[in-house]
Write a structure and sequence with these properties.
9-stranded mixed β-sheet; about 30% helix; about 25% strand
Amino acid sequence: MTTFSLTMTETHSRELHDHLLRPNGHEHAAYVVCRPSRVRRDPWDGEAHERMLVVRIVPVPDEHIIESTPLIISWQTASFVRLLKEAEAEGYVVGIIHNHPAAMDWFSEQDDANEPDLMRIAVNRNGPQSRFFSLLLTTDGKLAGRMWLAPTPGAFIPLRSIRVIGDRMGFHYPGRRKGETPTAFQRQALAFGNALNADLRSMRVGVVGCGGTGSATAMLLARLGVGQIVLIDNDIVDRTNLNRLHGSTQADADAMTPKVEVVAREIARIALGVRVIPMEAWVGDPGCRDALRSCDVIFGATDDHDGRLFLNRLAYYYLIPVIDMGLSIDVGDEDIPTIHAFDGRVSVLFPGYTCLICRDVIRPVIASAEALRRTNPEEYERRKIEAYVAGGGNPAPAVVTFTTELACMAVNEMIHRLQGFRGARGSAANRVRKFHLGEDRHPGHRPREGCPVCSSSAIWGRGDEDPFLGRAG
């Protein structure tokens, strides 16, 4: 069985609200143009899954409307056929959305009767493999949706979820406000409400990098009640990270245990019902793609530039918010080192935000050297000797209290975007905590002219593409 979901940006959501929820209270309609993202096997439930990534909203022109009242809308389908032609050429999926009053949070009998006709038009125009979905928006902001499988009454399945990503993140799924809060999370509900706990239980979250910062992040997510977590790292435990890697022991260092296994073991021991999957691999390994494409949010705690470069593109291609973390400690070489900088950085990536290259976090030349070292170590060593690539330097300073606080900063950014506890202007695209000064700063960056990732929307929501993420290697 294949399940389906949909992701849109806040910008698309605002377009829909402005077009559909007009003061006259009548029903209005728009087309939703998407690119598909296909997961062959969801790592948590084993099912195939398709996520529709919204790339454009096309309002149904008012002059095409045949009838529009507070309870019904009908329109000429010529514009639908034109979009189907474009969809066939560009690999898009076309759906429709219309509005309902607040009390009507599911499709009406009239919708049940009319939508198979639209599915039939899609099949007749583009063939039996055609996808067609329908959405509705209520006046109180709720979204619901279903994917039609055949042009016959009742031949649909509800969307597993609808995500809206932006300064705030919203999740819409069947039964969202139903069910009881488990005892372990009742005091959390007293602070943030039951809805946040339900959202966290439904979420699929990735943690890339399971060292000092990543292991702390994963443990915090598990204790918050995130239902599904995937851990991605290809490193093992050694003595140098025992004091920072949460859950690790000397026995793990002696056994050269993979970091992901240590963190997964400790999450399982908490016994809060988290389904955790460890993947001992570099994040760009093809075997990680299904897990990454399945995530609602990804935390980047990797310390390599090429890994960050990979996640940097993934966030925009797949409309998956990436919360990237970095700790920079610059000290002198005295016996008691002078602190020149002690900065913790949390940067959020998705369409509309400046990417890590334009924020000067990633150095492409170092990323290229890291990729060569991973794929052709002999050639890397040869070029290193000849000074054609950057060699590895001394280990970077790190202190467990600060790597853990950095993890708290990142997870709290996610909580705010889900719940809004900081208020209307509480989201931060880039937060730098000056630990030695006791202050937070919010450096601003603009996309560089011509940046293929963040200066235009060309790759936003592009989804599946060969080569993956448009990367040559």
